[in-house]
Amino acid sequence: MRKALNLIGRALRGLVWILALPIRWVGYGIAWCFRWLRKPWARLPFSGAVGRAYDSKPLRVVRKVVFALTCVIVWLVILIGAGVLGPIVKLAAPPIAATMGYRLSIGTCVICPFANTVRIADLRLDTKDSPRIGTDAPLVRLTLLDCAPFSGYVRIEGIHVENPDTFAADNYYAQHELFALGLAEVDVDVPSLLTDTISVELIRIHGIRALYAFANDTTNVDALIAQLVPPKPAAEPAPEAASPEPAPAPEEPATPAKPAKAKDIQIAVVDFEDNIVTIRSGISIPIPLPAMRLENIDSRDLKTRLEAVSDTVKKSVDGVKKGLGAIGDGASKLYDGASGLIGDGAKDASAALSSGAESVGKALSSGSESVGEAVKGLRDMFKKD
């Protein structure tokens, strides 16, 4: 028995010695370059006292603890760089998500810094009590994320976000996604991040299908946010203080810090194609976004175009919402007129129907003009001078 224990002890000591080799090699290399570094205090006048303190038992314990921690950190870096972090994330992420009220599954997770590779595939996310669990349409689905962080390249394929559960009861919202993205690519010149001008080689966005719907006194976007991030309970008001403390004397204003210089952005290629936004409130109105390919634009040009996109889309939403509301009012008048056919006679009903139809016609015209102006504005905005 004693021999077996001795063999086990020797095996463990040998394993520890092997694991400590990377740190020892670094130490041997430094000692070979700087012979005096092993005991640098030997040249000092009080080297004897320092040497005795260095060899004392408390400092020996501290040295061994620091050495052991250094070995652990070095091996963590080696294992993470070799790719062990991916399987850990794949196994640990679902239980962590479950504690936060989500159901998460990841098909593939590869994180390998030494190979400049981060890949996540077949990711599925649902809220804990969602009826979608186990179906082919989870609330959020990601087909592929492929990233080379040290090269500045990111590629995303197949993002799908379904409508929230409160909308899924309607067959239309069950069949049409809230958001889908076919392909997105970004390629950034990493060394340029340290300069005053950030160089972006490529921004490509293809295949957006977005649905913005009004129903149930809310929108599908607001309902999705409420489902993913439940509102926190209101905090109780703090009790009033018995005697308010006097306000502190105003401090002298500090010297304002010099604002940091804003970095410029140079984008070689922007490729935007096959993207459609649909607005729905009873009926659906698709707004196709014009395809564009821009070359050699800077940050000011990009900011101007993004602001124009935001303003145009906002006008589109407001105009379509106004038109759809008017359509609802007109349809209501049309129905009210039709219901009076029997009681009021054909003449009165005919007038009522004409009034209702006229209201619907005006609303349709108003809505189509709003959408037409918005789309025309987008086309003009995307034209490259």
Structure characterization notes:
This protein is an alpha+beta fold and 385 residues long. Among the domains are: 81 residues, no CATH class; 87 residues. Helices cover 47% and strands 26% of the residues. Strands 1, 2, 3, 4, 5, 6, 7, 8, 9, 10, 11 and 12 form a 12-stranded mixed beta sheet that branches. A hairpin with an 8-residue loop joins strand 5 and strand 6. About 7% of the residues have low confidence.
Poorly predicted runs of 5 or more residues? 330-357
Number of strands: 12
| Structural class by SSE content | alpha+beta
Largest sheet: 12 strands, mixed
Number of helices: 10
Mean pLDDT: 77
Global shape = elongated
Radius of gyration: 33 Å
The rounded distance between the terminal residues' Cα atoms is: 87 Å
- Assign a percent range to the helix content: 40-55%
Helix and strand string, N-terminal first?
HHHHHEEEEHHEEEEHEEEEHH
Beta percentage is 25-35%
Features:
elongated, 385 residues, 12-stranded mixed beta sheet, 12 strands, 10 helices, alpha+beta
Please give a quick description of this structure.
Helices cover 47% and strands 26% of the residues.
Strands, helices and their partners?
Blueprint (H helix, E strand, L loop, with lengths): L1 H18 L1 H13 L13 H8 L2 H26 L2 H15 L2 E11 L4 E11 L12 E9 L4 E9 L3 H4 L2 H5 L3 E10 L8 E10 L2 E7 L2 E2 H9 L35 E10 L1 E7 L1 E7 L2 E7 H41 L1 H42 L3
Parallel strand pairs: 6-9, 7-10
Antiparallel strand pairs: 1-2, 2-3, 3-4, 4-5, 5-6, 5-7, 7-8, 9-12, 10-11
Helix pairs in contact: 9-10
